[in-house]
Amino acid sequence: MKHLSDATVLHNGVKMPWFGLGVWKVKEGEEVENAVKSAIAAGYRSIDTAAVYQNEAGVGAAIKAAGVPREELFITTKVWNADQGYESTLQAFEESRTKLGLEYVDLYLIHWPVKGKYKETWKALEKLYKDGKVRAIGVSNFQVHHLEDLMADCEVKPMVNQVEFHPYLVQTELRAFCKQAGIQLEAWSPLMQGEVFRVPLLQELAEKYGKTPAQIVLRWDLQHGVVTIPKSVNPDRIKANADVFDFELSAEDMARIDALDKHHRFGPDPDNFDF
C-alpha cells in the first residue's frame, strides 16, 4: 500500500480502493458536495454513503461535477433497516441509484443485521449483483454468527463486511473469520469520533513518525489489511487523512496499538440495536 490509488481485490475479482471518504452525518447539499469534490480532487476514488445518511443526491452531484471517469470511482451505498426484505430492498436500491445518478453502484451493503430480515434482503442483493446493477455486495455490522447464518444458504458470499474498527475495538475474532472466509473487512469510525487525539500512545507515536494521531491509526488500519473510510468535511483534513502512504509502522508499534483494545464501541452493538 504505497499510494492512495492502491486497491484490494475482492473475492469476485473487483478492485476496491484501500482508502475512501465516509460521509456519515455530512449534510445534504453544499456540505457533502464540497467534501466529495475535495476528496476526489485530492486523489480519493472511493466514496461511502448510505440511504439513511440522506445525502446520496449530493454525493451524486459532486461525482458528476468532479469530471472523473465513472469507471475510476468506487461508490458504496447501503440499504436501511426499514427497507429490508426482498421487494422493498430492490425498490430501495433503485431509489438510491436514482439519487446518486448512477447506472450501477460499485458496492451495496446491508446496513445492519435486522433479525428475521437480512436473509431475504441478501437474496435481493444477490439478484442486483447477478443483474449487473452492483459490482459487489456485502454487509455492515455483521458479527461472526450473523455471517455464519447468512453463508449457510446464500448463493453469493459477501465480499465486504464494514464494521466499527479502531484501537479500542480491534475485532480480532471477526478479522480472523473474515480473512479465512475471503471477506474484506472495512472500518467505519476509524478515528473513534475524534478520541484518537486524546490517546497518549497515539500522540507518542505521532511524534515518533512525524505524523498526526489520525494518520497513525489510519496507517494501522491499512497494515492490518482493513479498508478504511475516515469522514471529514474539511479539505485540509481530507488531504491530510490520505497522507499515510509514505511511512510504515513497525511490528512492535502495531502490537502496542493492538494492546489498546477495550472491546469498546462508540456506535451501537450489532447484537442489541432497536432501529
UniProtKB/TrEMBL annotation:
Report the coiled-coil segments: none
Does the keyword field hold Oxidoreductase? yes
InterPro entries for the chain: AKR (IPR020471), AKR5G (IPR044500), Aldo/ket_reductase_CS (IPR018170), NAD(P)_OxRdtase_dom_sf (IPR036812), NADP_OxRdtase_dom (IPR023210)
Question: Which residues are listed for substrate binding in this entry?
Answer: 111
Q: What PROSITE patterns does UniProt report for this protein, alphabetically?
A: ALDOKETO_REDUCTASE_1, ALDOKETO_REDUCTASE_2, ALDOKETO_REDUCTASE_3
Q: Does the keyword Repeat apply?
A: no
GO molecular function terms attached to this record:
oxidoreductase activity, acting on the CH-OH group of donors, NAD or NADP as acceptor
- Give the positions of the site Lowers pKa of active site Tyr: 78
Q: Which residues form the active site?
A: 53
- What transmembrane ranges does the database entry give? none
UniProt keywords (A-Z) are: NADP, Oxidoreductase
Q: Which family does it belong to?
A: Belongs to the aldo/keto reductase family.
According to UniProt, the name of this protein is Aldo/keto reductase
The record places domain NADP-dependent oxidoreductase at: 20-261
